[in-house]
Design goal:
This protein is of the alpha+beta class and 454 residues long. A hairpin with a 2-residue loop joins strand 19 and strand 20. It is elongated. It has three domains: 125 residues, Pnp Oxidase, Chain A, CATH 2.30.110.10; 169 residues, GAF domain (Beta-Lactamase); 109 residues, Orthogonal Bundle (Arc Repressor Mutant, subunit A). The strands form five sheets. It has a seven-stranded antiparallel β-sheet. The protein has a six-stranded antiparallel β-sheet with strand order 10-9-8-13-12-11, with helices on both faces. The termini are far apart. Helix 2 packs antiparallel against helix 5, helix 3 packs antiparallel against helix 4 and helix 3 runs parallel beside helix 7. 31% of the residues lie in helices and 29% in strands.
């Protein structure tokens, strides 16, 4: 039976660790586990080189190697006979393999310690299936995520593309994009994160499947999987994320007792599912500029396949252009000075809002609401309303207010308003800021305001 390398794609997810064997020139064998077997083409793979001093010495003396890989669904095993070609410390292959290790290292507090030394390229001389092993599929074996309703990938691409094209504003673009991904691909847990003004952190501006914990969650550039994708601007797909983290934590345990212990940092708690087992994050780019990050998760260890990655890369390019256009949206016309109608205070509840100047946070009834630029926007609106009775505002007047600290270009103002709107819906529904036209929005208040600056 002829086995083609491209038919073993499930074996390269890393769900079941692969085993590598080498031999010195004197015939002394060395066997070790490897974290990545990376498919290149029908006759080549790349292996991750991180700590394998003995392996590197052996390959230098004897360029032959043996790798055993396993299918995580059928548990079938395959043997690869390899011949060493070269080591790469830069370039597309190295960068693609490195970004995954960087993400795990960052999340487990081992940035700079747990890293890819090289991507070692091997020619695949022979592929064999181990026929003597049982190939029964257990009832609880992981199943790949199917396209919902048996629709083709092309049909799903058409639907998502149409949703993006029909969006009339940023909020509808974000929501329709996530809804389409859920309906067409079964992505029940997804989030879109945008970079802040300083491009140091990402904030979640839209999510599905996370409830109230989704919108507003933040992650620093370089932290964990999502932060690494933002910093490196590279797609990252992981299977059996729990296994990767366990491996990283095991290495961390070894480093803790070594001379490198002082460089370890605390493990990072990041937004998303606590029990996610596979993850796919896509940087949404316009040319080389990061517009957003799309992250999807699954509780299945085989939640995402190669075609999911290719699919999201295509629609991600469309979404990036649409997002960039919506974020740059400018309004016309002067600020409106409509005054709020007077309502009897006895019919409204009281809301105590506090603005903490030291860290730009707003609390409502002693519960955290929002911080940074959206907090300053809310405080400006509430103070203006209290002083002048105004209820209508424009994006332009916010951009012209130096106290808000918006940059002169690419200020993400519209996305900040969306974030503020959703946080108010969740935490303080008595205050709303619905859109009332292109670049205009209304401040609706159904409570008595008690404003204090701390």
């Amino acid at each position: 039976m002829t086995v083609r390398l491209r038919d073993l794609s499930a074996c390269f997810h890393g769900i079941i660790p692969s085993i590598m064997a080498t031999c010195s020139k004197d015939g002394e064998p060395n066997v070790t586990y490897i974290s990545q077997v990376y498919y290149l083409d029908e006759s080549h793979v790349a292996l991750s080189c991180q700590f394998f001093n003995k392996t590197r010495i052996n390959v230098g003396e004897n360029p032959q190697a043996f790798v055993q890989v396993h299918d995580p669904v059928t548990f079938e095993a395959y043997e690869l006979d390899l011949r060493f070609v070269r080591s790469e410390t830069s370039g597309p292959t190295f960068e693609s393999m490195s970004v995954r290790i960087q993400a795990i290292a960052s999340q487990t507090g081992m940035s700079g310690v747990f890293r890819l030394l090289s991507a070692d390229l091997y020619e695949v001389v022979a592929v064999r299936k181990l026929e003597e092993l049982l190939s029964a599929t257990p009832a609880d074996a992981p199943k790949p995520l199917p396209v919902t309703d048996h629709r083709s990938e092309l049909r799903a691409l058409q639907v998502v593309s149409e949703r993006l094209n029909r969006a009339v504003d940023l909020e509808s673009l974000l929501s329709s994009f996530l809804v389409a991904l859920g309906e067409e691909l079964g992505f029940d847990h997804a989030m879109i994160l945008l970079p802040d003004e300083a491009r140091e952190r990402l904030f979640t501006v839209a999510s599905s499947g996370y409830g109230e914990s989704g919108v507003g969650a933040e992650v620093a550039f370089g932290d964990g999987l999502i932060g690494t994708v933002a910093r490196e601007k590279k797609i990252l797909r992981t299977s059996d994320l729990g296994g990767d983290l366990r491996y990283g934590r095991a290495i961390r345990g070894e480093v803790t007792g070594s001379s490198l212990a002082h460089v370890l940092t605390p493990e990072i708690a990041l937004p998303g599912l606590a029990d996610a087992r596979s993850h796919l994050a896509i940087p949404l780019l316009v040319q080389d500029r990061l517009v957003a990050v799309l992250a999807v998760e699954s509780k299945s260890p085989l939640g995402f396949e190669e075609w999911h990655e290719a699919f999201l890369h295509i629609v991600g390019n469309q979404a990036a252009i649409a997002l960039d256009r919506m974020i740059e949206d400018e309004e016309v016309g002067p600020p409106s000075f409509v005054r709020a109608p007077s309502l009897p205070p006895a019919s409204r509840r009281s809301r105590a809002l506090k603005f903490y100047q030291s860290d730009d946070c707003v609390f409502v009834d002693d519960e955290y609401l929002i911080r940074n630029v959206p907090a300053r926007i809310l405080w400006k609106l509430l103070k203006t309303h209290t002083a002048e009775g105004r209820i209508e505002f424009t994006n332009r007047e916010l951009r012209l207010d130096p106290w808000l600290g918006l940059p002169p270009v690419k200020d993400n103002l519209e996305s900040r308003l969306i974030l503020l709107r959703k946080r108010l819906e969740e935490k303080c529904p008595d205050i709303r800021i619905p859109s009332c036209g292109r670049g205009h929005f209304r401040l609706e208040i159904d409570c008595v305001l008690d404003l204090k600056e701390i």
